[in-house]
Fold GAG-pre-integrase domain-containing protein.
Amino acid sequence: LGHAGITRIKMMVEKGLVNGLEVIGPMDEKLDKCDSCQLGQARRRPFDAVTTRESRRLERIHVDLTGPIRVRALGGYYYSMPIVDGHS
């Protein structure tokens, strides 16, 4: 699922790094195991040691959709979609 573990979530809550997350019970180490991850035997794969840059423009693009954003952009938009060319 790609979610953060309980240790990281607990740290984020304690440092006030998240808004709107209501803790309704104790955050103990019993929560360290995610049933869905255990069933799927989720494993973090290592990153490739060597990265290669694309040789041509638009050979690969990286796109991310973010939002809704609290502060509206010009035109009243709530979402952002940055697009980066892997060659640049």
Notes: The longest strand covers residues 61-63. The helical segments are 6-14, 35-40.
